[in-house]
Amino acid sequence: MQTRHLLRTALLGFALGAAAPFAALAADPPLKVGLLEDISGDLAFMGMPKLHGSQLAVEEINKSGGIMGRQIELIHLDPQGDNARYQEFARRLLNRDKVDVLIGGITSASREAVRPIVDRTTTPYFYTNQYEGGVCDASMISMGAVPEQQFSTLIPWMVEKFGKKVYVIAADYNFGQISAEWNRKLMKDLGGEVVGEEFIPLGVSQFAQTIQNIQKAKPDWLLTINVGAAQDSFFEQAAAANLNLPMGSSIKVMLGFEHKRFKPPALNNMHATANWFEEIDTPEAEAFKKRWKAKFPDEMYINDMGYNAYNTLYMYKTLVEKAKSTKLEDLRKVIATGDACIDAPEGKVCIDPKSQHTSHRMRLISVGPKHEVKVEKDYGTIQPYWLGEIGCDLTKKNDKDQYTPSHLPKKS
Amino acid sequence: MSAEVFSVFYQFADVFAFLILSAAGLAIVFGMMGVINMAHGEFIMCGAYVTVGLVNLGVPLPIAQIAAAITAGLIGVVVEYLIVRRFYKRPLDSLLATWGLSLIVTQSMLLIVGSSVRGIGTPEGSFAIGAYTFSSYRLVLFAAAVAVLVGLYIVFMKTRFGVIARATMQNAAMARALGARTGRIYAISFGIGAGLAGLCGALYAPTMTLIPTMGATFVVESFVTVVIGGANVLLGTAPAALLLAAIRMTLNASYGQIIGQIGMLVAVILIIRVLPEGLSSVLVRRGR
């Protein structure tokens, strides 16, 4: 057999990756919004609502007269979960299409891939996901929740309710690593103990050993910051093995809608803090959901990323109309006044001038045995305060860096 | 103590089952027939989706799984007839053709079925030994993996079809001269390979998230198992899976999943360096 030769050829096949399909481009008119969201590949199920949220907002804004009378032209490219393609498409949108604003990115890895490219331009970039926090960069405006809004609420609550011993399963890339670091810091402050930490390579789908490691460590609860469809198989396998531990997360339920994708009771006893989840039933939220479902009746779940993506276009509209300009420096002058706010379906949200991150109304939710979602605690509006406290002040200095509890700005 | 011993066996059985079930189909298609089937993961995905679809229609899980494996097998026969057949003498082109097929299938599934399908849940049943609790279904997977190996042994070593199939793979022209209908043999063999891939998807469907690209989580493991196993399905794939499962299980248990995965791939590199023809080259030579 020519196995060796065949192997080489097979590996070559993997290495080649997929060739990039090119989306159609429209002619030049109005305000150009460049959007990078995965609608194929492993994260398509999360990325699809982000595209839909953006499309819904663009349609609504265009119908009501656009931004300063200019219509929005949405140019969406699908990077298929590939960071190299994120960079290629970001360059294309920024340099060739000359978009007025760039929006998007799912994983923190994709955001960090795109950010240096954006930094070389004068185009504003909106990142619309919740994430591990810490990016202090004048070109980037973050619209999702960050650890001081998600972990500083969730972890003390879990410790109080379930106990001081936690086991962490996290995806092995910057998001999982930095989130785990946040957990270590908060657990230390609370006098708790991290009895185990396991980082899982993306794409791993088998967890029998992990489940046993957890049982050996005997934690009181689990912090699950595993990412992607393959790693989500953990929940099904843990339920089948009757692991039965309380779980907390910053990305489950409202983001990955695991409670809709898995058969109950796989997600039983999951907890998360969120600025949005589809089960919010305020009149504003109901009206928003109704508009969404009218346009996209087949949506499995309106997740927080999709919701943030929707808000982002309204925030951009507000900034541009207040600044009477689309230039980044003019938009940042509006942000610096502290008056960059919109009335979102969750309530009023504002951009913090120092960090350019967004305030959010945070609620702690839990999932029951039939996968019903309940609000356990309402924290009201929480500011994204951490970056400002450690010395990031974008009104004075552009650090272009990402800080973590172990990587703080140098005192000057 | 007995809990620890059982736990080691259980973890080993779990990794072994995963490697055997994901590699069995490929062992025939790639190991025996020499077709680099880049669409292997898509046959697995097909098995999983058919299973979930049938269960949602009210079909009992085991019947749905068998039906899914048969469906994947029949699709395999069609694919062989329409596409693969044209590339037996051009392995590089077969790589491109099946890869293209794989891209078309995943994207079509995404467009037709959507980005995610609700899971059906693992069959109830868990048991406890000492401080550990285990899912009973995982033992079903192990039993299925052993059954697949036994089944392959019987089909390829003990039946007339098996003899003709092995003769065809070894020397198609000679087999044809002796009256074997090699075209049909190729089609059936490819169909069996595809059916086994479908079976793998069907068996793992209840335990996983269903997305169109789910086959990809199996593909690397299946290729490395087959490659280090070599051309002989029984004397190659099975020992390869035993060896890799032992390495991966030990490292997973002591150092976590990252080291487990790295360790397995390093082992693969070393084995191919030392034994370019795979494990079966040694085992078969010994046997003679």
Automatic annotation (TrEMBL), chain B:
GO cellular component terms, A-Z = plasma membrane
On the tree of life, the source organism's domain of life is: Bacteria
Q: Which InterPro entries match?
A: ABC_transp_permease, BCAA_transport_permease
| Family assignment from sequence similarity | Belongs to the binding-protein-dependent transport system permease family. LivHM subfamily.
Residue stretches spanning the membrane: 15-36, 43-59, 65-84, 96-117, 137-156, 185-204, 224-246, 258-276
Entry keyword annotation includes 4Fe-4S: no
The record gives the membrane topology as: Multi-pass membrane protein
Keywords from UniProt, A to Z, are: Amino-acid transport, Cell membrane, Membrane, Transmembrane, Transmembrane helix, Transport
Which molecular-function annotation in GO is an example for this chain? transmembrane transporter activity
Its recorded name reads: Branched-chain amino acid ABC transporter permease
The biological process GO terms on file are: amino acid transport
Q: Does the keyword Transport apply?
A: yes
Q: Please state the protein's primary subcellular location.
A: membrane
Protein source organism? Rhodopseudomonas palustris
Subcellular location, record wording = Cell membrane
